[in-house]
Amino acid sequence: MRNLFLTFIALFLTVSQLQAQADSIAKATVQISAKNDSTYAIQVKVQVQAGWKVYDANAEGVEAPTLKYTLETAVPVNKPSYSVTAQVQKDVLFTNAKSFSGAFDIKEEIVIHGFQPDSLKGVVVMSVGKESSFYVIELPITMPLANGQKGSQFNILLPESARNTPENACGESATSTSAESGAWGVFFLGFLGGLIALVTPCVFPMIPVTVSFFTKRSKTRKQGIQNGLIYGLSIFLIYVLASVPFHIVGNVQPEIFNSISTNAWLNIAFFAIFIFFSISFFGYFEISLPSGIANKADAKSGLGSLGGIFFMAITLAIVSFSCTGPILGTLLVGSLQGGAWALTQGMAGFGLALALPFTLFAIFPQWLQSLPKSGGWLDTVKKVLAFVELALAFKFLSNADLVQHWGLLKREVFIGIWILISLGLTAYLFGFLLLPHDVKGQKIALGRKLLGGLSLGFALYLGAGLMPQNANNLKLLSGFPPPTHYSLFATDSASHGLKADVVNDYTKALAMAKAQQKPILIDFTGWACVNCRKMEEQVWTDPAVKNFIQENFILLSLYVDDRANLPVAERFVYTTQGGQQKQINTFADLWATFETENFNQSSQPLYVVLSPDQVLQSNPVGYTPDIQQYLEWLKCSAKKK
Known about the structure:
Blueprint: H1 2-25, E1 26-34, E2 39-48, E3 53-55, E4 66-69, E5 74-76, E6 81-82, E7 87-89, E8 97-100, E9 103-112, E10 119-130, E11 133-144, H2 172-198, H3 206-217, H4 221-241, H5 244-249, H6 256-261, H7 264-281, H8 291-300, H9 305-319, H10 321-335, H11 340-363, H12 376-404, H13 411-429, H14 446-464, E12 502-503, H15 506-516, E13 520-525, H16 530-539, H17 543-552, E14 554-559, E15 572-575, E16 581-584, H18 587-599, E17 606-610, H19 627-637
Parallel strand pairs: 12-14, 13-14
Antiparallel strand pairs: 1-2, 2-9, 3-8, 3-10, 4-10, 5-9, 6-9, 7-8, 10-11, 13-17, 15-16
């Protein structure tokens, strides 16, 4: 997964560099004229630099130059036409390809349905080539609309009173406590992931081999201990350093990690990757990085001294990739919402767990005798992990489904899939389901039977909470299945388990607060936010908390990962306090920016209380699983001075 991320970074830099060079390949100017109230004629003049050519549609799958618009209600009336006819020429890449050279025009008519903004943005998408080089480039175009008008712009930045010192000095302890517990929680999850990786077939056999290498190679016991410590530290540093690029990416905008972790297409990509990993773990094929990479790292591991030991650690990371990759992928996506430091903490926990046994066995080599021998149990561990990876794959698909509101994996469907996976694991552990390398009639060990019983019990536990009236029976899994209101039986997908009036629009909530003279409890949440579901299903459902919220607050839930488009009339460009311009097109753009600009935080959940006059009532708090602590913060926040 680390190498996959570095590949993504390389591709990102390549695309960024190409976009920067696009103007040196071709330039586009645009003219637009209104034919009637909603129809426009567009003419784009493209000037291609000498030596380059623009491909027309070719049999090999290359598309002709096209115009694409950011406004989904702008629909072409006809196919684009070109001022010159593409010439058929011999080509290095495509045989007898049609292409344009020099200058040509693209003409198209569009009709805009509904509200028209004051300008229309788009891109000219073209496939260009020069000798053996081939690129797909996008040239941005902006067109003023004669019949367009300014939309209604939401005032993102609240008054100073909503952002300064609160009326009541409470919430700081809850915030710091939740942040600290969250940091340790991510570190612990990473550590747990590292422990799981240790008992996989790719890592476990390496422990005695590597430690024996150190002890035999070292002239003295002291040198063996020293080499073991350096080796363990190298493993730890490799995984911590893998998180460094995310700190660089994080400087772009505060909510970048939430945008990455809740991006629908990225989650679908992880769904596909984890399905791929799970099939491999089942034993149908092996995953490995190119042998050249491992060979180069292994060659350098023989250099001796500090450098050689460090490259031995890199070799371990590469060789064990097929087993650690899925675990690291889970950690990567699971911790991204907490930001770069959360990812670093998780990777540190993972690296520490992976490094500890190598270091300890180097210090105490006699412990190797008590280490279990490699055998069939490692294959069992790998196949159990395959079922776990399969379940996690559907969690990623669920994230994409939730933020896009596709309705594919409602709560009951998701739980049903997990039940089937649990029953499949049960059948495998009891020997009823045979996978590659399994032997029919083999003796089932007691430990495997006990694990099979736990798997069956988990399936029954899931079944007990399948129906809506039993949703609270699954509190141990809060955050993993879709929320209780995203159900086949729900009539309002925007409500919560509180069964109270939940508002999703700040302006409406403010009007209600003034009418009822109640403060607003802002719940910055997310469809794919695990801790948000835990708060809703484990804290908000407590009778004391539930009643206090319903009686004393206007509850406003703002989803910072809702990818639904804003109405066209409500989209706008916002200039942040830092001077950056940002396009506000979706509810996610709006509420994520609203959170970061006013409260300087980008994590979810975040709870903020404002008076009807938009005065901050207390310090905002984040994830607070302690019911009493959260209730005390609510009571303090509701006090009037």
